[in-house]
Amino acid sequence: SYVLTQPPSVSVAPGQTARMTCGGDNIGGDSVHWYQQKPGQAPVLVVADDSGRPSGIPERISGSSSGNTATLSITEVAAGDEADYFCQVWDTSRDHVVFGGGTKLTVL
Amino acid sequence: QVQLVESGGGVVQPGRSLRLSCAASGFTFSSYVMHWVRQAPGKGLEWVAVISYDGSKKYYADSVKGRVTISRDNSKNTLSLQMSSLRAEDTAVYYCARGSVVVTAMQDSWGQGTLVTVSS
Q1: Do B112 and B93 form a contact (C-beta atoms < 8 A)?
Q2: d(C-alpha B112, C-alpha B92), whole Å
Q3: Of A63, A68, A99, nearest to B97 (Cα)?
Q4: What is the pLDDT of residues B1-49, one digit of tens each?
């Protein structure tokens, strides 16, 4: 089955750029979506189709994807960005949604 | 605005059944794919099932296939998840989420979830 690999945690100082990766076999050929989930809240879609930003998502948040890695970047990180971030694709070979294990972003 | 409200969660004994519902409003429900996604306590997101806009296509995660049925009533703007033979590992918050207009991943709106606890 298709597996998406995310680092369990990423730490960054305020004002810096956070980059969170999502590894998968030829993930660059898939549409990758990213979700932000804060404690006690439902997930929120922050990047759709590799790099699209849904309405209301700040330009500080962006996505890219190539080869075997997709990346979610957040510039000018602030305490309010602390959350779990999950990547996701559609596995066309099995008609399944696949989530990565999630990355916890900590702002130092 | 899009609103999704789940209900039906609770404490249930192993082996028993439970039916979850999701009331949708603020959009044309019959035009959208709908998903169920769950999250065990302290764990990540796990996709459960998806249903096409008209109910003609349904896909399930391997972990629930054969024990779970997803359905929808477009006349009532309601999504359902019938779960049977429940196990301890089914304990999770279950989210209803709106998908796209075709069956793919991506959920652009989520409910607040309903907690299912499987315990004797």
Answers
A1: no
A2: 13
A3: A99
A4: 999 999 999 999 999 999 999 999 999 999 999 999 999 999 999 999 9
Nearest to B55 by CA among B77, B33, B38: B33
What is the C-alpha separation between A61 and A8, in angstroms, rounded?
19
B107 at A interface, C-beta within 8 A: yes
Inform me whether the C-beta atom of residue B99 falls under 8 Å from chain A C-beta atoms.
Answer: no
Which residues 56-85 on chain B approach chain A with CB closer than 8 angstroms? Answer: 59, 61-62
Dihedral of CA atoms B85, B88, B91, B97 in degrees, nearest 10, equals: -40
Are B47 and B37 a contacting pair, CB within 8 Å? yes
Q: CA torsion sign, B4 to B103 to B50 to B57?
A: positive
**Cβ contact A48–B108 (<8 Å):** yes
Quickly count: other Cβ atoms within 10 Å of residue A11's Cβ: 11
